[in-house]
């Protein structure tokens, strides 16, 4: 899942980013409204965690523009105010959910995960290709019934490939969906991750390289 955090309180923003990354999400951060607006319209995020009162462009305007654009990106609006009027106003702007500060981090994670599920086309609760079964909710992968221990990035790559159902997924698409904006676009990290993923999955090979195009699963 790709998430953008737009929050001007840097300590809070950085804490949210660290926590979401530990949960296996690819997370970018912006510390003001202008940077947040640019990021939200350059990259397709599943969820934007958006502070309402931002320097530069106000969070209300960012939210309204995202809603008007028709994007599948979901918006979780944060605010220091807990009044019913403010919640109604925020939701009226197009926010998908609203969380007042201070909040429990586990609740934030649960809300982001729920919104992320709404941001992508419906998929079966358990994904399967050949004898490989991937359970996104429990983050568990098995092959022929035996567990396969994957890192968060390996799990993310496998998930994107399996969801594509045999269609080719480019390295650029995998970078955008699994890694964050700090990743060098010219890095070989996708190739390295696919190589280790193949090794862990074993034989027969599940992932095929399509020269000049990307990767796809075989045996779908």
UniProtKB/TrEMBL annotation:
The keyword Phosphoprotein is annotated on this UniProt entry: yes
Keywords linked to the UniProt accession: DNA-binding, Phosphoprotein
Keyword Cell cycle: no
Entry-linked CDD domains: trans_reg_C (cd00383)
GO molecular function: phosphorelay response regulator activity; transcription cis-regulatory region binding
All copies of domain OmpR/PhoB-type, residue ranges: 124-219
Entries under SUPFAM superfamilies matching the protein: CheY-like
GO BP term, pick one: regulation of DNA-templated transcription
DNA-binding region: 124-219
4-aspartylphosphate PTM sites in chain numbering: 51
Response regulatory domain mapped to chain residues: 2-116
Gene3D superfamilies with a match to the protein in the record: 3.40.50.2300, 6.10.250.690, Winged helix-like DNA-binding domain superfamily/Winged helix DNA-binding domain
GO cellular component: cytosol; protein-DNA complex
InterPro entries per record: CheY-like_superfamily, OmpR/PhoB-type_DNA-bd, Sig_transdc_resp-reg_receiver, WalR-like, WH-like_DNA-bd_sf
Short name of any one Pfam family annotated for the protein: Trans_reg_C
Protein name: DNA-binding response regulator
Organism: Micromonospora wenchangensis
Phylogenetic placement of the source organism: Bacteria, Bacillati, Actinomycetota, Actinomycetes, Micromonosporales
């Amino acid at each position: 899942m790709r998430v953008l955090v737009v929050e001007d309180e840097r300590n809070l923003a950085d804490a949210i980013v660290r926590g979401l990354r530990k949960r296996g999400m690819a997370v970018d951060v912006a510390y003001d409204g202008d940077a947040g607006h640019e990021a939200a319209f350059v990259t397709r995020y599943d969820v934007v965690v958006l502070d309402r009162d931002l320097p530069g462009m106000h969070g209300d305007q960012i939210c309204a523009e995202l809603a008007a654009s028709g994007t599948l990106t979901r918006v979780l609006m944060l605010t220091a105010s807990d009044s019913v009027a403010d919640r109604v106003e925020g939701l009226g702007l197009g926010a998908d959910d609203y969380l007042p500060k201070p909040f429990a981090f586990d609740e934030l994670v649960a809300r982001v995960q729920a919104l992320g599920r709404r941001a992508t086309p419906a998929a079966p609760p358990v994904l399967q290709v050949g004898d490989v079964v991937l359970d996104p909710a429990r983050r568990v992968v098995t092959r022929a019934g035996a567990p396969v221990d994957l890192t968060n990035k390996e799990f993310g790559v496998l998930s994107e490939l399996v969801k594509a159902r045999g269609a080719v997924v480019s390295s650029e698409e995998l970078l955008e969906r699994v890694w964050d904006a700090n990743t060098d676009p010219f890095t070989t990290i996708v190739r390295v991750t696919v190589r280790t993923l193949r090794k862990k999955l074993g034989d027969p090979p599940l992932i095929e390289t399509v020269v000049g195009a990307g990767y796809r699963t075989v045996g779908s």
